[in-house]
Amino acid sequence: MPSDLPLRNIPDHIKEWIEEQSHLRRMSQNEFILEVLKNQRTGGNSRTPLLDQVEPAEVVVPESLPFSFIDLFAGIGGFRIGLTRVGGECVWSCEYDKFSQKTYKAWFSDDDLFGDINELQSAEEIDSTIPDHDVLAAGFPCQPFSIAGVSKKNALGHAHGFDCEDQGNLFFKIAQIAKVKRPPVLFLENVKNLKSHDSGNTWDVIQTVLNEELEYEVFDEVIDAAHWVPQHRERIMIVCFDRHVFDDGVPFDFPDCPAGPKPKIGSILEDDVDDKYTLSDKLWNYLQEYAEKHRKKGNGFGYGLVKRDDQARTMSARYYKDGSEILVYQGEDSNPRRLSPSEAARLMGFDERRAQMFGHEDGFPQVVSDTQAYKQFGNAVVPAVVEAVGREIVKTLDWHIRENRDGCLLKTQGSEQSVPAKSPA
Predict the structure, then answer these.
(1) With the CA atoms of 53, 59, 65 and 69 taken in that order, what torsion angle do they form, in degrees rounded to the nearest 10?
(2) What is the pLDDT of residues 285-328, one digit of tens each?
(3) Rounded to whole angstroms, how far apart are CA atoms 344 and 337?
(4) pLDDT-derived band at 70, boundaries 50, 70, 90
(5) Diameter of the chain by CA atoms?
(6) Pairing relation of β-strands 327-328 and 305-306?
(7) 38: which strand partners?
(8) What is the three-class DSSP state of 341?
(9) 220: number of CA atoms within 13 Å, CB side?
(10) What amino acid positions are annotated as catalytic residues?
(11) What is the 8-class DSSP label of residue 278?
(12) Full-prediction pTM beyond 0.70?
C-alpha cells in the first residue's frame, strides 16, 4: 500500500479550517491532519476531530521551507504579516513615518526598526547595515504614481513619478540595495497606475533597471484584493528572480483567486459603533450636493454608500477627511457613518487571526489617533494578497533547492557571479 494518500476535491471551507487550526497549533498541515486521524482511530468521536487532544508541536514547522526577508518602506507591516505566514523571518525593516513606526513597533515588538533609508548612501553602509536575506520585500511609496496622487500633485504644480524628489526616487534606492546585497528574490508592490504612468515611460524605466541592469527575471500582475477582503483594491505585484541564482526559465505563476463568492463588507462590521463616526448633517448634505453636481457634469466623483452585502471601494489614505469613499448605510432615517478604525483594519485584512500570530489576542492594538490609523490602513498592502503571492514564491524557492541540492539560496559573498555585468544608473 502506498505511503502517500493524495486527497482531491477538498472543499474550500475545509482547507481554510485545516490551515487555521494547523497554524494555531504551530504544526504543518500534514502533521495536523495525521494527528487528527490518529486521535480518531484511538477512540475519538466519529463526528468530531477531537481538536483539544491535538498538542502543539515543539518547533514551528512551516508549510514549506523557511526563508529570510527584509521589509522596506514597511508601513504597518502588511508584507511582514503575509510573508511570516508562509514561513518567512523578517531580519531587517525600515520605515520613515514616525506614526507608522509607532504602530509597527507595537505590533511586532521591533525596536530595531530603521528610519530613513536614504541615510544609507554608500555600498559599504548598505552592506554593513542590512543583513543578507532571501527576499527583498518593498511596497515603495505609491503616491507619485497613483491616479489620485498624480492628480493632486498636478493641481498643486508639484512633480510626480520619478521627478518627485521625496518619494519617486525611492525605487532607485531599492535598485541600489539589490545591487549590493543581491537577494535571490525581489517582491515589490505598487498601484496599478504604475504601468500607465507617464504614458508607460515609468514602467519602461523600472523594467530596464530590474531586467537588463540588475539582471532579474521580472513577473508582474495586477491583483484585485476583493477576492480576499471586502473591498475593490487593485495593486500591481512585481516578483523578480536573480538570473545568477535561478538561470532563465524560472517556474513561477501568480496565485489563482480563491474560489467562491467574494467577501462582503458585513463580515467586518461591528454591531456597536460610537456615534462619533456618524456623519453630521452638514457633511452629509455637502457630500450629496457635491456628488449631484458632478453627476450632472457626467463625472464619476461622489461618495460610496455600502450595505452589508456589498463590497467597498478602495480605501485611500485620505479616508480620515470625510470617509466619502466608504460610507456605511444606517437606514433611511439616519446619516451614514465612517468605518471605525478597527473595522478599517479588518477591511484591509489586519484581523484578529493574524494579530494572534504576533501575540495580540484581541486584535492589533491602535496606538495612534484615528486620523493616523486611517492614513496607515489606506496606504497599506493587504496581508492576504502578500501571503498568496508569497506561497507561490516559496514554491519556486523550494524548486530551486531541490534542483540544486545545495540547500542554500544566498550567494557566496565575493563570488564572481554575485555582481552582474551592469549596474543601475
Answers:
(1) 120
(2) 999 998 888 887 777 668 999 999 999 999 999 999 999 999 99
(3) 12
(4) very high
(5) 74
(6) parallel
(7) none
(8) helix
(9) 21
(10) 142
(11) B
(12) yes
